[in-house]
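Session log. Operator J.P. requested a structure for one protein chain; no other inputs attached. Running the standard single-chain path with C-alpha cell output.
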Amino acid sequence: MKLDLVSLLSERERRQVLFEWNATERAYPDACVHELFETQVRRSSDAVAVEDEHARLSYAELNARANRLARRLRARGVGPDKLVGVCMQRSAEMLVALLAVFKAGGGYVPLDPEYPAERMAYVLGDSAPVLVLTHGAVGANVHALLARDGGPVVDVVADAAKWAGESDADLARDGLLPAHLAYVIYTSGSTGRPKGAMNEHRAVVNRLLWAQDAYALQPGDAVLQKTPFSFDVSVGELFWPLLFGARLVMAREDGHKDPDYLVRTVQERRITNVHFVPSMLGYFLDEPDVAARCTSLKNVFCSGEALTKAQAERFYERLPFVQLSNLYGPTEAAVEVTAWRCPRENVPVNVPIGKPIANTRMYVLDAHLEPVPVGVAGELYIGGVQVGRGYLNRPELTAERFVANPFVAGERLYKTGDLARFLPDGAIEYLGRNDFQVKIHGFRIELGEIEARLATFPGLREVAVTAPNDRASEKHLVAYYTAPEALDAQTLRAHLLAGLPEYMVPALYVHLEEFPRTSSGKLDRKALPVPGETPRAYEAPAGELETALAAIWSELLNVERVGRDDNFFELGGHSLITMRLANALKRYGLRLPSVAVIFQHPTVRALAAYFAAQPHGDAAHAAIPVRSGGTEPPLFLIHELFGDDLYFTRLSRHIAADVPVYGVPAVPLDEPQLHSVEEIAARKLEMILAVQPAGPYRIAGWSFGGVVAYEIAAQLLARGLPVEFLGLIDSMCPTARRSRDKLQLGNARAALRALLHRNGVVLGDEADAAGSFEELLAHCRERDALPAHLAAWADAEIRALCARVAAHLHAEETYAPPGIAMPIHLFAAEHSFPVAERMLHSEAGTLGWGLVAVSRQLHRTTVPGNHVSITTEHAPVLGRELSDVLCSLPSIPERRVSSL
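Structure written below.
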C-alpha cells in the first residue's frame, strides 16, 4: 500500500468529520419556490411585496400579474426543464417575469443587458431558450441576436395587453416537480467559454427555508436586492422575503456600486437585511454617519470573497448593533452552503466560513477522496440537496466536477476547487483556490477566459493574466503580453470589453519581451513581475496640483507616501475606488469628467498635466477623451439638455473600435450659463478644434445636443472647414417646436418641473400654489417628491442645475437653424414624446428638420426605444446604426483626393 493512502484519522475522528459534523438533516416541504410564495400571498395579500424606484406591488398584485404572464408562457411551450431567457433591468417587472417563468414550469436564464454582444450571443446559443423576456429598450439587442434563428422575444410591458385577459388564479403544477430546473446561471469558464450551472427548485427551497430558520424574517422587515441577477446571490435576495411576508426593495441599476446611494437607500427604505461582498462593505462603512443613518439594519451578510478579521472588527466598530454573518457557496450549489455568525469580540485571525447549513454536507478531502485530519488542508467538496445538476451541454466538465459521494450511496459531490480545513469545533476555514479561478469584488473569474480573449488581439505572441493582491490586500487583474513593441493599454482594454463583462477586464497591462520560464520551459507565473514591486526612485510631487493629487491618492489607497510617477492602479486603485476619487477631486476644485481619464493618465504627474492642460486649468472646459484609440477621424458627442455626459461612455462602447470618441461637456454648474445656441456651439467648437485642428469633422448630439451639433456644423462650414458627418439623436428642430403651444421655459422654476418630469415625477395641482423656485423645491422636499439622486443635493446645487436647464431651454426656443448643404443623419426613437410622435407623422417623419434641410440630404434611421432609452438600454442598437454610417464614409485617402 502506498504511504499516501494510509489514513491518518482514527475511527472516531473519521466518524466526526464525515458524519457527526454533517448531521444537518431537516424536514422541509417538497415544494417549488413559487408554491411557497403563493402560500404567503394568501397570508399577506395586501402587504407590499416589492418596490423599485418607480412602482410598488402588493403580494396579490405581484401574484396576479405573474399568473397571467405564466399562462402566456405555457401557451408558448414553456414547461418543466424548458429554459426562458430574461434580459431585463432590475425592477418590479423583472420579478414578475421570474415568478412567471417558475409558475409556467420553466427555468430562467438571466441575461445581463450589459453583456457584450459576443457574450450575449454565446449564452443565447448555448442555452437555446424557448423565448426571451425583456422590457423596454433592452430587448432590441436580443431581437437582433435572435433574428437569424427566429427566436421569439416578449416585452413584458409593451406586450402585456396580449395576456391581460388571462386568469390571475394560480396555475396547476402540470408535471412540474421540485427536481426540475429553477435557473441556469452562467459563470466564467477557463476555456474562454462561460458555463451554465443548472440548479433545481428543491435546492433553492432548501437554501431559502434554512435562511428563515436561521435569521427569521418578519413581515415588517425589508431586504435590499442589489446584486445583478446574473449572479446567484440575487436568488436569495429576490425570493427569501417573498416567501415570508417581508418587503423586497429593488436598488436602482448600478446602485450596488455606489456606497452613498446604498446608505441613503437603507435609511430611506428602512432596510433590515442586506448582502455585501467584503470589499464593498468597506466602502459602505466609510460613509459618514453610517450608524446614525442605518438604524433599521439587523443583518449584514458577506460572501463572494474572503472576509478578514480587520473587516469584521471594523464592521462592529461602525455598526455595533447589527449582526454580521460570513457565508460561503458556489453557483453550482444554490447560493450558500455554509454560514458563520461573526462574534462582536475575539474575531479569529482567519474568519471561518462556518458550518454546513440544513441538508448539506461538507467534506475536506485529499486527492484520493479520503478525509484529512482536523487542521490539515484539503479540497472542499459539497454534498446534499443543494448540489446542482451540472453544467448545461457540458457532460465532460460535469463528470469532472460532479463526482460520486463515496460516503453516501446514490449522492454526488461537487468538487469546488477551494482549499479548506476543519477547525476543532467543526467550522471550516477557507484557504484559497487550487486552480486559476479567482474572486474579485465578489465576481468569480476564470483567468483562462480572459487570456483566451486577449490572445485574439493581432500581434500578441503570448498572454497571461494574474490576480495579485494590492497594498490593501485586495486582488486586482493584471494582463501580461509579449509583442514586438508595447501597445496602448486602452486599445487592449477596448478589445477585451468587446467580448467580456467589465469586471473581467484588467486595468494594468505589462509588456514583456519574453515570459519567464521554468526549467521545463513552461510559463513561470510566479516569476511574472508584479506592477509596482519594481523599485523606483521616489520623486516627490512637484507643485500645488501634484501635491493635492498625491494627498488624495494617499488617503484613498491607504499609502503613506505617493510619488509623482506612482501608478494609481499599481498602488491598488480599481473601479470602485475611481468613484470615490471623482468625489475627492471635487474638494480640490477638480472635476473628473470620465473614469477613462484615469486609465489614460494613471500617474500623479500625468493626471496633473492633464488637468493643467485644460483651458482655465479645468477638464470641464475641454473635450473628454472617452476612447482616444483608433485611426479614423474622431466622433464628437455633444451633451444634452441637462448636461448629461454619462451617455458618452454608454454609447462609445458600441461604436466601431477604429473610431475615437470624445465627449463635449456642458458649462460647469458653478459658472455663468450661456443663453443662445450660437454661443454654446462656439464654446464647444473651440473644444473640438483643440483636439482636432483640421477636418474632416464628425459631430453628433442627443436631444438638445443635436441642436448644438447642428449649429457647430454650420459654424464649421462657415469657416470653410469640412464636416463629414452630422448625427442628430432624437433631436427635435427648434423651428418645429415653436409650432406647438408656447411654454414658459426660461426660468428656474419651470426648469425644476421639467427636471422632475424627466425623472417620472408628476406634481399635483397643489404644487401650482408654490410661487417661487424655493417654494416649489421646499414643497418637493416635504413630500419626498425629489428623485433619489437629487434628494441628497443641496438647494443651491439644484438651483444651479435648473439654471443650466433654463438657459438651454431659452437658447433652444430662440434658435433659428440656418440651412446647411450637407447630409444630415437623424436617429429617431421609435417611441417618442407626444409632441415628437406628431412630428414623426408630419414633415415626412423628420422631427421638423425637413423644414431646414436641403432636399434629399436628410436620412432618417428609426431606433427602438423612447427618447431616454435610446441612449441607455438601446445604446447597442444606436451604436451599431451610427457605426454603419461612419464605416460607410469614404476612406481617408479618398477624402484627401476629393478635397484637392
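Operator note: The longest strand covers residues 412-422.
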